[in-house]
Amino acid sequence: MRTRLKVLTWVGIGVPVLVGAAGAAYATYYHDRALPGSSVVGIDVAGLTRDEVANALRAKADGVVIDLKLPDGHKQASLADLGTAVDVDATLARVFSANEDWSSYAKALRESRPVAVVTTADRTKLSAFLTDLGESYARRPVDATVSLAKNKESFTVSPGVAGRSLEATGLADIAAQAAASLTSSAATTSLVDREPEVTTAEAKALADKANAVVQTAAEMTAGERTFAPSEAEKASWVTLPADVAAAPEVDAAKVTAWVAAHVKSIDTAPTSGMRYLTSTGTLLRVITPASDGTQVTNSADVATSLTAALDGGKDTTATVKTKVLPATWTERTLAAGAENLAYPAVAGEKWVDVNLSAHTMTPYVGGKAAASTVKMVHGAKDTPSDVGTFHIYMKNPLMTMTGQNADGTDYETPDVPWSSFYNGGEALHGAYWRKTWGYAASHGCINLPIPTAKWIYDWAPIGTPVVVHN
């Protein structure tokens, strides 16, 4: 303060000059107090210290309220409730800024000095206050929605529901003015209707677009066959957009899967046939017919066409294109003379003919007998020999055979010679217990004279066909 006292001299036009001890005392007293004439929005703060001015401001601000008129009554809110405050430090800075200018000391003796309040506002806190206040009045709007109907064949709309919120128009400005003037005020609230973000009209427009896709005819044809998706299938292909203003889309992958499923019923594999030829190459007979197959060649194009048609709402029929898969033949050229025999033997092929009706056995090579036809004994009426084409799979030069008789009793025959098994327990074998031949009496095996059985045993290798027929 010494430095200030050294230069404490004022000279101004029409302003008395303070000199001597009185001037020094004046400056000393007010250097940390509000100068004469100072006021804050009507509050006389002259001669008050910083703390005293601060306390006066806070007390005045704490008493400021905003009377809010609600739909069903009133509520008083403080400035703090509304996120508005008096910035005491900034206001003090304004009040005491004159104390830094020596000329202000002289002016203060003849001029009043009103100071404006500095205020702050927290809009987030104000918004939170209004939200909490409006909880008992507010109703959230419900967006209209589009969904698949219960029958899965169309799209329906769940209407939107309007909401409402509590509004206090201009409350931020009212609170700011109250803080700036440090006077209480009033504000009116009202309930304001709030439309949902997605309105019923918008949802209906989207549902109409989706249903237009379902009603679009999109078929595919393959010759005389026509394949058309059901409305439920088309509805399952529709993807609704998140933005109701956008158009629904058709899921190309699902359309492709539908096309592929029906193409399976169109595609057919070729059937390989079997036919016999004579030794000269002439067709003798067809054993198994052959048939060409069919293969669809434009599945992807058909799926793309159907997807585009549904997306565009244009009826269309896509034509399936196919190619022929040629059939193949397995041909067997019969040996000369085998054309009318029981087995279609090829040239040089060994096989055994067993004629149950004639009670005979004949070995063949191709179409010619390899040895004389012999009489044999085959299965009795109650234990018949199986009919069919078989192959020798096992041999045994001497063995004991066991099994059951027709009446269920067991039998056992030792030392059975030269067995060539061709069908389970059925075999061509020697029968030393037979004295006559040419009838049905065995348990199913083909009984042969021992020399004949030995000849077959040596002559027919494993795999030799045995044809048993009537």
Task: Explain the overall architecture.
This protein has 470 residues and is an alpha+beta fold. It is 27% helix and 33% strand. The strands form 12 sheets. Strands 23, 24, 25, 26, 28 and 34 form a 6-stranded mixed β-sheet that branches. The radius of gyration is 57 Å and the shape is rod-shaped. The chain starts with a helix and ends with a strand.
Blueprint (SSEs and pairs):
Layout: H1 2-6, H2 20-30, E1 38-40, E2 43-44, H3 50-62, E3 65-70, E4 73-78, E5 84-86, H4 88-96, H5 102-107, E6 113-115, E7 119-121, H6 123-134, E8 145-148, E9 155-158, E10 163-167, H7 171-181, E11 185-188, E12 190-194, H8 200-215, E13 218-222, E14 225-227, H9 231-237, E15 238-239, E16 249-250, H10 252-266, E17 273-277, E18 283-288, E19 293-296, H11 299-312, E20 316-319, E21 322-325, E22 329-333, E23 350-355, E24 360-365, E25 368-369, E26 374-375, E27 377-379, E28 388-391, E29 394-404, E30 410-423, E31 426-430, E32 439-442, E33 446-448, H12 450-459, E34 465-469
Parallel strand pairs: 1-6, 3-11, 13-20, 17-22, 23-34, 27-32, 31-33
Antiparallel strand pairs: 1-2, 3-4, 5-7, 8-9, 10-12, 13-14, 15-16, 17-18, 19-21, 23-24, 24-25, 24-26, 28-34, 29-30, 30-31
Features:
34 strands, 470 residues, 33% strand, 6-stranded mixed beta sheet, 4-stranded mixed beta sheet, alpha+beta, rod-shaped
User: Can you count the beta strands?
Assistant: 34
The helical percent reads 25-40%
Structural class: alpha+beta
Number of helices: 12
Radius of gyration: 57 Å
> Judging from the principal axes of the Cα atoms, what is the shape?
rod-shaped
Would you identify the regions where 5 or more consecutive residues have pLDDT less than 50?
1-19
